[in-house]
Amino acid sequence: MDIQLEELGYGGFFASGFEELGLDGCIPARVISEHKGAYGVRDACGEYLATVTGKQIYGARGREDYPAVGDWVALGRIGDGRAVIQGLLPRRTLLKRKYSGGSGAQVIAANVDTAFVVESAGGNFSPNRVERYVAIAREGGIRPVIVLNKIDLVPQEEAQAMVSSLRERFNGIEVIGTSAVSDGGLGGMKALVLRGETCCLLGPSGVGKSTLINRLLGKDAIKTGEISGHTGKGKHTTTARHVYFLPDGWILIDNPGMREVGMTDAKAGLEDTFAEITALAGRCRFADCTHVHEPGCAVREAVARGELDGGRFDNYLKLSREAEYYEMTSLEKRRKDRETGRFFKRSKKDLKKRGY
What does the H/E/C string look like for 332-343? Predict the structure, then answer.
């Protein structure tokens, strides 16, 4: 069925990018799924299975140079439901994380307007984890909205207290309490996304993202796992990113639950997420204060006076260290690892000399 490109999220920004590529004979299309060695793409006329050209593969400097779900591409159709991606349009926003145990970045989704950061009221409720996702969204230029899901699993007073604590901690960010069982809060989510805009759901496995999507779609499009009576968590069910088109006219990218979300070069995102710490840092004695050991640190002084939550400050330091380490070049990382190894070797020798 033919549709308007605007229904896929196309607009002036992408139209300009498409024109600048100057690829005659191509049409704009959006990546809606990713497979091994190929992509599912959709244009105004239908869906295709597409591959990238050898020239693109040869010229790619890293994973970010390849298409990702949510990207707009210049497509050359070759028939039989197949096509070739001839070019990648400029991205308006980009959501990425550090590879677990590695130094590279994994692109989660592109051209997202709103990221719903989903946390569960049942089980291991963690505002620190929410901060991590919020910082990553903000670094990518994406508006974060916090969704406290499964509020039906705890007493109403406890759920209200959790929502209030999140609103206090994340001042200026919308916080919505939802229940997929009763559909509570889903109207609040729908009201925040305009027709033609793209959103995604972020969060670890078991917080109920797939069930929320099914409720928003009005049908069981995604298989969901049963809830554990012991942990209150659902089983991990989503294994690949996919784009869904909701009845209200907005576009939703589903992401697999992620056990670990490593920080990339998210300095700006951290500054926005921890705005009160950023403001205090401007009053430190030293402009390059790390807020760890320097004298005259306004941030540590605020923690000591009880004006800044110590747990929030500790989480800020942890995320900052991750972001800083990612920004190091490969050479710097190897040098740092060698220095750390030598330090431990010297420490072992000293302990052995002392008879430990």
Answer: HHHHHHHHHHHH
Q: Which CATH class is domain 274-348?
A: mainly alpha
User: What residues pair up with 105 in beta bridges, in sequence order?
Assistant: 98
C-alpha to C-alpha distance for 97 and 309, rounded to whole angstroms:
26
The set of residues, in sequence order, having a beta carbon less than 8 Å from that of 100 and lying 6+ positions away, is 259, 260, 262
Which one-letter amino acid corresponds to residue 189? M
For the segment 37-89, what is each residue's pLDDT rounded down to a tens digit?
899 999 988 899 999 987 777 677 777 888 999 999 999 877 778 899 999 99
Query: Which residue matches tokens 């989503």?
Result: 238
Question: What totals of helices (H) and strands (E) does the chain contain, helices first?
Answer: 11, 13
State which CATH number among 1.10.287.130, 3.30.70.260, 1.10.10.10, 3.40.50.300 fits the domain covering 94-254: 3.40.50.300
pTM to 2 decimal places: 0.71
pLDDT mean over 28-34: 94
